[in-house]
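A brief tutorial aside. Many learners find it easier to grasp structure tokens once they have seen a single protein encoded end to end. The record that follows does exactly this for Glucokinase. Read the sequence first, then the structure, and try to relate runs of similar tokens to stretches of the chain.
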Amino acid sequence: MLTFPVLIGDIGGTNARFAILTEPSGKPLEFPTIVSASFETLDEAIRAIVLDQTPVMPRSAVLAIAAPVEGDEIALTNSAWVVRPRQMFETLGLDEIIVLNDFEAQALAVVALGPDQMEKIGGGEPEPYSRRVVLGPGTGLGVAGLVHSNDIWIPIPGEGGHVDIGPRTARDLQVFPRIETIEGRISAEQMLCGRGLVNIYRAVCAADGVSAGFNLPAQVTSAAMDGTDRQAQEALDIFVTCLGRLAGDLALIFSSKGGVFLTGGIAQKIVPTLKSGRFREAFNDKAPHSQMIADIPVYVITEPLAALRGLGAFASTPQRFGVDTSGRHWRHG
């Protein structure tokens, strides 16, 4: 059991969110969401946004970061921040720190949230204790699994956002060759994240022989959803279709009859597009197992602080979860 008060933090490539749990059953003290680039280091951000704003000093911390958690110095994948737990004992006065992958926290949130914090996109009813999949396009593309065994929920972190993704249709064959690659390959994250949406948009413009007028994901999304730009509309359609394909692939891999859960700000902003039919059509298109996939429900998590809710559930009731903290749990002294 962690010593309370406990600092919990969801630290992504773009934004960071923090709260303090004063006791296991108490309401968390929440702090403003920050842009990570506004601070040189994570320690500086925690000091300025949390510790300097409250008399409640945390004794322990559970942090979820957008990176594989390995070693005593953990560099975020899409940020300049480096997490140094042993240093945080001195800089922040903490006695105990657990660091998880950010999508472990999202997976934990799936069982911490209620149905009013989700929007369903087709499928049947979930099997209560069956496997689940969580994926979310944001600054990058996160993927995790969740399984139930021996009366506990076990999150399965990984780097599924970096799997290959390829063309299927004649139009895909016009667009995909124009998508920016990484060392010669198109990973899912090259298309299914904020910068990925811009990559798709630029590729569509190049295929059509027109200049790309937008540089930001929000610009592409806005122009697509209000119908003012044809290339932006097609880019968002391709984005949603490819997200559906990948989500369906993951549902097959995990046989996730407990559901597939989309999380993150992008999914929340494009719920009407996700519900328009393209996503579900691509998700179901998995012959010879299309009927099995069609029965699997998909949900968009609409709670903006989902990862914090998952971390809070783990910190308060660790016995509910089988979280492997080997090599990811530091104690002062």
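Self-check: The longest strand covers residues 141-149. If you spotted this yourself, you are ready for the next section.
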